[in-house]
Design brief:
- This protein has four helices and four strands, in the order αααββββα.
- It is an alpha+beta fold and about 120 residues long.
- The chain has one domain.
- Strands 1-2-3-4 form a four-stranded antiparallel β-sheet.
- β3 and β4 form a beta hairpin.
- α1 packs across α2.
- The longest helix has 20 residues.
- The radius of gyration is 16 Å and the shape is flat.
- This is Transposase.
Length: about 120
C-alpha cells in the first residue's frame, strides 16, 4: 500500500524522526541538542529537501573561481513547523552548496509574500 503525505507534513516530521533516532543511540537528554546541531550543520541540505517552491535567480559568482558553475535559487518551504524562505547556492546537478540567507515566517502567506519579493 502506498501512502502520500504533503511535503509540509513530511518536513514537519524531520526533527521528530531525527530526535527519535538519536534517543536510541544517545538517550533522551542529549537527543534534542544533537538534533539541533545536525540541522545547523547540514542546514543547506535540510532546507533544500524541505522546499515546496523554488525559483532560479541567476548565476552565482564565486570568489574562488571554482571549476563548475553554481546558481542562486530562491526556495520556500516548511521545516520543523516553521515556514522559511532562503537563497540557496546550487550546482548543475541540483545539489546544494550553501546558503546566502534564510528567514523564518509564522505563516505560509507571509512566506509566499517574501518568496515573491526575493531577488
Amino acid at each position: 500500500m502506498t501512502m502520500f503525505h504533503t511535503i509540509g507534513a513530511a518536513s514537519d516530521r524531520v526533527m521528530t524522526t531525527l530526535v527519535a533516532g538519536l534517543e536510541i543511540e544517545f538517550g533522551r537528554g542529549a537527543a534534542e541538542a544533537l538534533a539541533a546541531r545536525f540541522l545547523e550543520a547540514e542546514e543547506s541540505d535540510f532546507l533544500w529537501d524541505a522546499r515546496v517552491s523554488e525559483r532560479w535567480l541567476g548565476a552565482y559568482e564565486s570568489i574562488d573561481e571554482e571549476n563548475f558553475e553554481l546558481d542562486r535559487v530562491a526556495i520556500m518551504g516548511r521545516l520543523n513547523g516553521r515556514w522559511f524562505v532562503a537563497v540557496s547556492i546550487i550546482d548543475g546537478d541540483g545539489n546544494p552548496h550553501g546558503l546566502m540567507g534564510r528567514r523564518n515566517f509564522g505563516s505560509e502567506r507571509q512566506a509566499r509574500e517574501a518568496f515573491a519579493a526575493t531577488h
